[in-house]
Specification:
The complex is a heterodimer of chains A (562) and B (617). With 562 residues, chain A is α/β, with parallel strands linked by helices. Helices cover 63% and strands 10% of the residues of chain A. With 617 residues, chain B is an alpha/beta fold. Chain B is elongated and about 120 Å long. Classes of the chains: A alpha/beta (562), B alpha/beta (617). Chains A and B meet through helix 3, helix 4, helix 5, helix 7 and helix 8 of A and helix 3, helix 4, helix 5, helix 6 and helix 7 of B.
């Protein structure tokens, strides 16, 4: 329990290591600011009282030093504060940049097998909101806590020099306002911090699906019920925030009360010491100002501890996500890519986790290089599972898959995927230019190669007819190009990649007849001279195959040699 | 041919700026407009806002009293060497004030929060109402992720404007003014120092703030762009992986975040500078007060009680003004976030029906399109209508198939019938009633619609089928029966019952965990559950394997009997079965009739038919 509880904290601390210099500089500057401020007020109080007594009694005092000190402290306080904020923010942003990259790199091995049940919108909200709220850890948790600690230590040491009783009183006040109160606030705020992150993510998802499915909601939904639902979700966000605000407001008010009572307590103690001639008048005023101002050191702590709950839950979600075991383990000593591209499935079986049914049950087939296999079957019969295995997105339980005689278990996923090219029903074009989407397949492709691929995919003319040709932005979810154009851009991308094995996963589904024809003839060019798996029901595509297998519930139920 | 290829998915900053935010002039006038909008909204929450300000002001007055009492204690003891016993009265008073002020402090913060919370609730309700009003014809063209960010995070970013900025700027005037009133009679020199420096603070704030504001808006946009890019990369992670590009792109993600850091730090360097200047002025003024008061005390110009009282008040005088730096930041965040919100609220809704008449159908209706004319406003093609003088009758209890190449106007026509789009002229008759006179909701209650890509909403399968549990026909005694019957009719019952949690299985926005055929069947179950007399189908079973296709075709047959049906058809089987076939081209009907008749005519339909058949459709 305890180790699990501190997992997030340990992880957060381990992440700071590269930025430790920046972090410590931030803490140091924060301490300087606090001490300057307290000293400024204390010296001022001492100064005017001493000056008043000097005026009343006619004694001469050295007023140059304290007057200069007052001005110097005013400067060191403000400049220190400015530098502190710059330094801590710089550290935070450096960390954020590192964190995003770290996260994406850790997400990559999990795709697509371990991420398929996560929704795009939710995943985004996790990454953005959670990583952003980790900002709290450094700006609002670590720095103020450490600075409060070091400044309090210095201040109590200073007070000890004057009076142990006053030092003790101030220490008690600081502990109450800085430690006890924030800890109580933390305990109370733990729950609402988590609820807020969850509620925000729920609301984001609700909004996004409302937009995507507005037509269905209009036709099938109940408007009153929907408005009630959105209000409920808004309330679900506001309620924990309100709870948090109660805690904040109460702890803020209480901490103010404690600091003022402590200041007053110090005055009372000091009055006694003045009576006993242990202290003089100016020292009394100095200590009064000092004690009251000393609470600036712990002022940020309640907020810091509150942020802790939010940060911890964000860290936990991120860790939970990336801690998933990748679906496939890479070989320790991978073999180089094969040079022969015949493909063999030998009694391959696969079961998805949590399912007792075989997704693939002793599948066997053999293709010599350049041959094409068509796979037919109902949805759920295992066609897509074959693709998942061949691309090493999942691992099979028994049997073996060999390319050019080499088991794919002995190949790196990257090596294997560099041999394969996929054109599927779902084409993802990135929200950037057409050219950038094509160069994805071959970053160093020449312009000629780009044109050639597009010409072969029968998309060149249409691309050139776009407002900015190859530099046209495709838009989010590729709204600027039609479904048929998307497929042919994907085919051009596949042609550019020039991989020896082609996987077609229902590449012409959902297209109208005319578009389908254009896509099919583009595919014919892609298939020339390559080993291919064709998953489709379309007769025109099936005629391209040398063998057809029919699948049902993970088994091959018929084989047809064309 | 000018063309510089971009070799990575990384952000092309100019291109993206253009994508995410259609160049909005960021001038003074514009900012003022945003600020005025935010302030106008504050009227909605003026009660809690005023309560917060009143409590805060009262707290300020008590603070002055408290300083006065403390000054007396210090004067009596430090200067006059009175014993502790003589100042107990003051101390008791001070403690009383402490407690009272703690209470006021609490109340002030609570009211300020409620102001912000109420406003966010109100604004979200407005936004959702607006989205509703803009309707499906609008939402089809939106980027749902971006809108979600606006409605959730954008609205959250406004919170501090109302809970911090607005109450605080008022208190920043009230409290210092009150303190000044007390300082002048006690020591006019200190009063002068405070009075002179105080107006300098807002002046500096405005000068520096101007510059920061522009930078801040840019920063907000770059944050949005970075989010969009990141989302895109994660959605396309599998694609990246297929091209072994994921690790390459990870570098870019780091680099983009680093660019963001550099940009943000540029903003913060100035934003922090403004608060530094403010703090510096404040600190220096306090130092000046201390030094001047000190010397005047030495020369015996003023009494110590006055001096110490002024010194106690000086930091409190600047405290609300110093806080303005933070509040100003809250305002800038709000200004940056509010723009897309205002844009959304100001979006002109597409022309929609304003009819109010009720509609109740006891049987499948006759539907008649009469001289329908429709074009999308603001398209470059200008006035070329998408639907042109279209006449068409859908007889009760028959099925009509719309065929034609993409762009012929099939989808537009179905959207018009659904009431999502309003024709510029012409009328649709439902039996003998004008569609334009009927309340759109009443009409839509009579339609079941199967889109090409159905949306599943986050929730259980049961909730996805029975989206409005009250809408099921009276045929069923209980909700559960209706649900099961709908699922069974859609051939969805088998696979639903095979799921470990059955109808309670949670599904998400894009139906993760369900196959395409299963999603289609859930959508069909939805239609069965609704049991409406009019059915509109968009490309049924266009992307399925034979088994799913057979099941779905069967289910659709069952669904379409004894109803008025319009199908945007792509498959021969569907077309042949339709009593009426309508061939659309360029928004006009070029052929119309039964399959055999049309085939015999050997025109467009016959050509289309031969093409379909050669494709094995």
């Amino acid at each position: 329990m305890n180790t699990k509880k501190h997992r997030e904290l340990r992880w957060l601390i381990s992440l700071t290591r590269p930025y430790l210099g920046w972090m410590l500089a931030g803490v140091l500057l924060a301490t300087v600011v606090i001490i300057s401020n307290v000293a400024l007020l204390a010296v001022s109080g001492w100064f005017i009282t001493a000056m008043a007594i000097s005026g009343l009694t006619g004694t001469v005092i050295n007023y140059f030093t304290p007057a200069a000190a007052i001005r110097g402290l005013a400067i060191s306080r403000t400049v220190g504060r400015y530098l502190e904020r710059l330094v801590t923010h710089e550290a935070t942003f450096k960390l954020l940049a590192g964190l995003r990259q770290w996260f994406f790199e850790h997400l990559e091995p999990l795709a697509p097998a371990r991420l398929q049940y996560l929704q795009g919108g939710d995943l985004l909200s996790r990454i953005r909101a959670d990583i952003d709220s980790l900002e709290n850890a450094y700006l609002r948790i670590f720095t103020p806590t450490l600075a409060a600690l070091s400044a309090s230590l210095l201040m109590v040491l200073f007070l000890l020099f004057w009076s142990p009783a006053i030092a003790l009183a101030n220490l008690v006040g600081l502990i109450l306002a800085g430690l006890v109160l924030p800890l109580i606030a933390l305990r109370l705020g733990m729950h609402s911090g988590k609820a807020m992150v969850q509620a925000r993510s729920d609301l984001r998802q609700r909004t996004s699906e409302t937009l995507r499915g507005l037509a269905e909601l209009t036709l099938y939904g109940n408007p009153t019920q929907r408005i009630a639902q959105i209000q409920t979700e808004n309330t679900a966000l506001v309620a924990p925030q309100r709870q948090q605000n109660r805690i904040d407001a109460a702890s803020g008010a209480l901490s103010g009360l404690i600091s003022q009572l402590t200041g007053l307590g110090v005055v009372v103690l000091a009055i006694g010491l003045v009576q006993g001639s242990v202290l003089n008048g100016p020292e009394l005023v100095m200590l009064a100002f000092f004690a009251t101002a000393s609470f600036e050191a712990v002022a940020a702590l309640p907020v810091a501890f509150r942020a802790f709950g939010e940060t911890q839950s964000a860290a936990q979600r991120i860790l939970d996500l990336v801690d998933a075991e990748p679906a496939v383990t890479e070989p320790l000593t991978p073999r180089p890519a094969p040079t022969q591209f015949d493909l063999e499935f030998n009694h391959v079986s696969l079961r998805y986790p949590g399912s007792s049914q075989w997704a693939l049950n002793h599948i066997s087939f053999k293709l010599t290089a350049g041959q094409k296999l068509a796979v037919r079957g109902a949805s759920g019969s295992g066609k897509t599972s074959i693709t998942n295995l061949l691309l090493k997105f999942w691992d099979f339980e028994t049997g073996d898959i060999r390319i050019g005689g080499c088991s794919i278990r002995e190949l790196n996923g990257d090596t294997l995927r560099s041999l394969c090219t996929v054109v599927s029903q779902q084409v993802h074009l990135f929200n950037t230019t057409v050219a950038a989407n094509l160069y994805l397949a071959k970053p160093d492709a020449s312009l000629d190669e780009l044109y050639e691929a597009c010409r072969t995919a029968a998309i060149l003319d249409e691309i050139l007819a776009l407002p900015q040709g190859f530099d046209t932005e495709v838009g989010e979810a590729a709204t600027q190009v039609s479904g048929g154009q998307m497929r042919r851009i994907a085919i051009a991308r596949a042609l550019l990649k020039n991989a020896p094995i082609v996987i077609l996963d229902e590449p012409t589904e959902g297209l109208d007849a005319t578009t389908e024809q254009a896509v099919t003839s583009a595919l014919e060019h892609l298939l020339i001279g390559r080993t291919a798996l064709i998953i489709s029901h379309r007769p025109t595509l099936l005629t391209l195959a040398d063998q057809i297998i029919m699948m049902d519930r993970g088994k091959v139920i018929a084989v047809d040699h064309v | 041919m000018v063309h510089t290829p971009c070799r990575s998915m990384s952000l092309q900053s100019d291109a993206y700026a253009h994508m995410t935010n259609p160049a909005v002039p960021k001038d003074k006038e514009h900012t003022r407009h945003l600020d005025l909008w935010l302030r106008a909204e504050a009227k909605l929450v003026r009660h809690p806002l005023n309560a917060a300000i009143i409590l805060g002001s009262f707290n300020g007055f008590l603070l002055i009293a408290q300083c006065w009492l403390l000054a007396n204690v210090l004067n009596d003891t430090a200067i006059n060497h009175q014993p502790l016993s003589s100042v107990w009265g003051y101390i008791a008073g001070i403690i009383g004030l402490f407690i009272l002020r703690a209470g006021l402090n609490f109340g002030n913060q609570r009211f300020a929060f409620e102001a912000g919370a109420q406003l966010r609730t109100e604004l979200r309700a407005q936004l959702f109402a607006k989205i509703d009003l803009l309707g499906p014809a609008w939402s089809r063209q939106q980027r749902s992720g971006a809108v979600a960010t606006e409605v959730v995070d954008g609205v959250e970013a406004l919170e501090k404007y109302y809970s911090l900025y607005l109450p605080q700027i008022q208190l920043a005037v009230i409290i210092p003014a009150a303190i000044l009133v007390f300082v002048f009679p006690f020591d006019w020199v200190s009063g002068l120092i405070l009075a002179i420096t105080a107006p300098l603070l807002p002046v500096f704030m405005i000068i520096i703030g101007k510059q920061t504001e522009k930078l801040n808006q840019e920063q907000w946009q770059s944050l949005a762009r970075m989010g969009a890019h990141f989302f895109d990369m994660i959605e396309g992670l599998t694609t990246l992986k297929l091209f072994n590009a994921a690790r390459r792109e990870a570098q870019f993600i780091g680099r983009i975040a680093d660019d963001y850091r550099l940009q943000t730090m540029k903003v913060l360097r100035i934003a922090f500078l403004s608060s530094m200047v403010l703090e510096f002025l404040a600190a220096l003024s306090i130092a000046m007060v201390a030094v001047y008061v000190g010397f005047r005390l030495m020369y015996g110009d003023i009494h110590y009680l006055n001096g110490i009282f002024v010194l106690l008040l000086a930091p409190e005088f600047y405290l609300p003004l110093r806080g303005m730096g933070t509040q100003f930041h809250a305002r800038m965040d709000a200004l940056g976030a509010v723009e897309p919100i205002i844009d959304l609220l100001d979006t002109e809704p597409p022309a929609h029906s304003t009819g109010t008449q009720p509609l109740s159908l006891t049987a499948a209706p006759d539907l008649r399109f009469e001289a329908i004319e429709f074009s999308y406003p603001g398209l470059e093609s200008g006035n070329t209508p998408v639907i042109h003088r279209l006449h068409l009758t859908l007889a009760a209890n028959t099925q009509t198939a719309l065929v034609g190449v993409s762009g012929a106007g099939k989808t537009t026509l179905s959207q018009i019938l659904l009431g999502f789009l309003k024709p510029q002229s012409g009328e649709i008759w439902i039996n003998d009633k004008r569609l334009s006179a009927i309340d759109p909701a009443a009409w839509q209650a009579q339609i079941a619609w199967l889109p090409q890509n159905p949306t599943l909403f986050h929730g259980t399968l049961a909730e996805n089928i029975a989206m409005d549990p009250k809408s099921s026909g009276p045929k069923f005694s209980g909700h559960g029966d209706a649900l099961r019957a709908a699922a069974a009719n859609a051939h969805a019952l088998d696979f639903i019952e095979r799921l470990p949690q059955g109808f309670d299985t949670l599904v998400g926005e894009r139906g993760q965990g369900l196959s395409g055929g299963e999603i289609q069947r859930i959508a069909l179950a939805r239609a069965f559950y609704k049991d409406a007399p009019v059915i509109i189908l968009d490309e049924p079973s266009a992307s399925l394997d034979p088994e799913s296709e057979r099941l779905i075709t069967e289910a659709i047959d069952r669904l379409t009997t004894e109803r008025t049906v319009l199908v945007i058809a792509h498959r021969l089987a569907t077309i042949e079965r339709s009593g009426q076939i309508v061939v659309l081209e360029g928004g006009q009907i070029i052929e119309q009739g039964e399959h055999d008749t049309l085939l015999a005519r050997n025109g467009s339909y016959a050509r289309l038919f031969r093409q379909y058949r050669s494709d094995g459709l």
